[in-house]
């Protein structure tokens, strides 16, 4: 998924969630910025994430992020890679140790623009997070990365208690809870 394909995918992306639809244009506009895929763009930049679920759609894999101290989906900075599909898969592998990961669909699953707090010499900025739906086997051992305090398969009915009012996580959960994709 190169920059032009990403732009086209973003332009064609539709969602029934109002909060998500309000910033699609901002994502499209960002694809025209030459620094959009590097963290040196201090106003904000693209990230790629993986919403990892088991085949039966009963659990999702979440990480307790070391710096933010919040339960989140796996993902990270593009660091110059304009193929956010690759970024999401690479981050999922690095942050989980899983080898059974596979894309359910190569299309965009979810979008979220969220504010990252100031930390040391990095000012507060936005992450323009493009998310992809990935399946994995739950019986495979997990490997904790240095970016995480914890990593766990969370039953769908426990996610809300764990993430609180994180609307983007709850939105992805709702998207997969209603999914008819059972393999």
UniProtKB/TrEMBL annotation:
Keywords per UniProt = Hydrolase
- Stretches assigned to the Nudix hydrolase domain: 43-176
Q: Does the keyword Transit peptide apply?
A: no
User: Record's superkingdom?
Assistant: Bacteria
Pfam family for this entry, one = NUDIX
Gene Ontology molecular function: any one: hydrolase activity
Keyword Transcription listed? The answer is no
Protein's name according to its UniProt entry: NUDIX hydrolase
Provide the taxonomic classification: Bacteria, Pseudomonadati, Bacteroidota, Cytophagia, Cytophagales
